[in-house]
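[step 3/7] fold_predict: job queued, chain A
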Amino acid sequence: MPPVGLVLLAVSSVQVGGALAKTLFDDLGPGGTVFLRVVFAAVALAAVWRPRVRSLSRRDLGLVVLFGVSLAGMNGFFYLALDRLPLGVAVTLEFVGPLGVAVAGSRRALDVVWVVLAGAGIVLLAGPAGGGIDALGAFFAVLAGAFWAAYILLSARVGQAFEGGAGLALAMLVASALLIAPGVADAGEELLDPELLALGAAVAMLASAIPYSLELEALRRLPNRVFGVLMSLEPAVAAAAGFVVLGEVLDARELVAIALVVAASAGATRTAEIVPRDG
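[step 4/7] structure written:
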């Protein structure tokens, strides 16, 4: 498959996984769902990379913990947002994080255009007097975006300090430990239900293991700039997945807002690098 097709398939897999995850909220809640997703992803990554903890320096161990905190926050707050917002809207607001990383420190006048476009999209989503979407859900989505930005910045350092995906595997284990309490509080004994466990494993594969593998392969054959532009399609694909899987219908205002954020992100990433996310 051409590398562009790999990226598009990865983006679609992530968003279908997010839509499937939302169907579990009635049984597991957002906390239980994200816990299962992260745990199964951590087990899969640990089985593949077999990371060794004993050989880690104190500096590398601290880096892994910070990376794990960013993963837990990115996934946990996104699922809290998804419990209150349509999938397309939640992903659009979360994209504030990577967009901020893309334009941070830039002194080019053109980047102001991307910021204005994204800002217009977010204001449009909020609607008149902030009444268009759930305020707490929007806050959770933006907070998830902040943790996504931290993930992006930390991933470069983790990639230099660890071979392959060992650093990511260890960080996912840290994130799993951090999400135990909210997971048990939300889902309780439902976490032992075999059918729900199977669905949680499917979410982990669709939203983490499969897209991460596809992104790695695509990055071997695509310039980072092109990769970043393709990843900017996530809010639009999320809106489509929300409609097809969950029946979430967005109005014209929300669709225009998503288009503005997609255009802003695509424009910004033409001259900046955005790394793939596991969350």
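[step 5/7] annotate
The CA atoms of residues 84 and 253 lie 18 Å apart.
The radius of gyration is 18 Å.
exit 0
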